[in-house]
Amino acid sequence: MLKNYSFLVIPALFLIVLTSCKKEGDPPVSAEEKNVWVTKPSFPGTGRKEAVSFVIGDKLYLGSGFGMENNAQQFLRDFWQYNASTTSWVRIADFPGGVVGQAISFSMNGKGYLGLGYRLDCPPAGGICDHVYYRDLWAYTPQTNSWEKVVTFDIGEFDSSLGGTAFVIGNKAYIQNRNNLWEFDPFTNTLTPKKNLPDILHYAVSFAIGDKGYIGTGFNGSSHKELYEYNPTTDQWTQKASLGGGARYGAVGFALNGLGYIGGGIEGEYTNQGTYKDFWQYNPSADSWKKVEDYSGEGKFEAIADVVNGKAYVGTGDNRSSSKVTFENDFWEYVLK
């Protein structure tokens, strides 16, 4: 099922008619709750979706993904550093592990990590493309501007390694793919299988608040809005309140000041998709959701989101709000008031 689905959602191969997804039933945002989206210098690389990001210090790193380059849609390997203090971009070493989309990423102990994902191998004369799935995890060291392969996932057979997510708690990272979960130890570069997620989810989002991890939304034959909480101490999952907005996949998520945020993404089946730009705030103490400010850019599918120095950043992605796919390179900061 996954191989068929992942082929269907590659926009390079299809023209899809899409609609806006701003819901009339969404609750209003009161004046005292309003924060601000502020536009920042655009990502200087080619516009793309399926990119990854991680944060080291006051720098955000963004790269890989799928976009338009040299008049052709293709996978990319360039990487860039965003300095939140100077609001400037600098190109860094390209990712050496091969062109990759829908990888997972996170940062720990002064290093950034990128792993899993896929690429397409297509016949020169046209026809059905083959998926090539990656099983490696790489680390980026900013002091040397270099990448190093640190471990290969060698647990069972991968039916797919695309569309996963990851979060960090303490000195361990937790990597999700389908319903599988692994704990990564950066000191020993080892992977340990943990309790499976209660559902098989592709294109979900994740964030960590305190000593708990959260994974929500996603796709498994249809769009989802469930949220699951992971406790690494007990190695148990607990289902929490579902997202207040519509079901979706390919959204973005982040945690800020003890609260979780999910926004963007698309809804619907393959032939009836639409793009969201709404954002929702999750309070883990109350296990409740509250609508916050809509994203100020275009609605986004498979964008990136990360937090630097208490401010969230959202950018790139696939704008599916019209009758064509547009790969974006805009970049926005979410400022709490």
Automatic annotation (TrEMBL):
Q: Which domain of life is it from?
A: Bacteria
The record's SUPFAM superfamilies line, in alphabetical order, gives: Galactose oxidase, central domain
Query: What is this protein called in UniProt?
Result: Kelch repeat-containing protein
**Which organism's genome codes for this protein?**
Rhodocytophaga aerolata
